Amino acid sequence: MKKLPEIYDVREVTRSALFRVEQLKLRFSNGVERTYERLAGFGGGHQAVMVVPLLDNNRFVMIEEYAAGTEDYQLSLPKGLVEAGEDLLDGANRELKEEAGYGAEKLEHLTEFTLSPNYMTHHMQVVLAQNLYEERLEGDEPEQLGVHIFSFDELPELVARPDFTEARAMAALYLTRDIIQGRNQN
Amino acid sequence: MKKLPEIYDVREVTRSALFRVEQLKLRFSNGVERTYERLAGFGGGHQAVMVVPLLDNNRFVMIEEYAAGTEDYQLSLPKGLVEAGEDLLDGANRELKEEAGYGAEKLEHLTEFTLSPNYMTHHMQVVLAQNLYEERLEGDEPEQLGVHIFSFDELPELVARPDFTEARAMAALYLTRDIIQGRNQN
């Protein structure tokens, strides 16, 4: 394992309501010095969670939400921030109920993703939700989200759609497909 | 298809050397109004590209780079920004040579990813690189990156590693595995 660079200075450069930018001064083990910027603090210190809601071993639930970054409606998986004092799996179930209108009897932490580890400190927990039942909770969404059911058989067509581009949701679906297939073979 | 919200105001809230934050005022088709923030302009308007370098139908090349966001060395795929006046595939090949020490005779655009379409305007082009040959170009990296070879057979173990967390690289590898398997069956 390589020797980590020494971070000899960290300071906040700017912040907005949602984002905070830090500047870092680094010295690599070969003596080279660099000044980097990274995005920090997105989400106010709360854990972010993404939910893969499985109806059975093939079908899953997706949401359709307006995306202000790309200025179109995009397919994604239910996701949000865990609230203060809330358990990760409870937060996942709440987001599932708010965004997709389903609750889950069985919730399981699968893995942790980063977005862009070179430039962002963000992590996202991925939770598998099974044994679903219909239940809708009122969320803070400006409009009710579209809810769509797809199957892993359709994954090649799904990832080619222009309204499904979010790499985290794709990685979560591929990962889940492999896990489910592996369990079924055992 | 849902009617898009009306964006009736966009203004820059703050910017740093690398990041630019915009505030948007939106009116959804149901009349609900919201103020959102999004990250814009990361990369100075240049296209971002990620390369999947295949040695054969099973083995691929990864890089190991210090990630200032997570403060550790992370495995990822070669990636970077296409330069002004540079073709996307030429930019992909240049990044491959700079970061991994390989060039490719065959380059193919696979798809486009977003990071977090709700909060970021960023897109990343995914390019498959095949028929590799050894060639290193001097890049702007502070130290030479680690280069490692993995196979799709090892993908389940790879995505479980704590030093491989970047969802975009995972999605690109899963997508490539499916495409290669599909082509071999035909």
Report on this model:
Two copies of one chain form a homodimer. The first copy, chain A, has three helices and ten strands. Chain A is an alpha+beta fold. Chain A has two domains: 35 residues; 139 residues, Alpha-Beta Complex (Nucleoside Triphosphate Pyrophosphohydrolase). The first copy, chain A, has a four-stranded mixed beta sheet.
Which secondary structure elements does this structure contain, and how are they paired or packed?
The structure is a homodimer of 186-residue chains.
Chain A: E1 6-15, E2 20-27, E3 33-40, E4 48-53, E5 59-67, E6 72-76, E7 79-81, H1 88-100, E8 102-114, E9 123-134, E10 146-151, H2 155-159, H3 167-185
Question: Could you name the key traits of this structure?
Answer:
Nucleoside Triphosphate Pyrophosphohydrolase; alpha+beta; 186 residues; 2 domains
Q: Total number of β-strand segments of chain A?
A: 10
* Oligomeric status: homodimer
**What percentage of the residues of chain A does DSSP assign to strands (E)?**
35-45%
SS element count, helices of chain A = 3
CATH architecture term of the largest domain in chain A: Alpha-Beta Complex
Outline of the structure:
Chain A has three helices and ten strands. The first copy, chain A, is α+β, with helices and mostly antiparallel strands and 186 residues long.
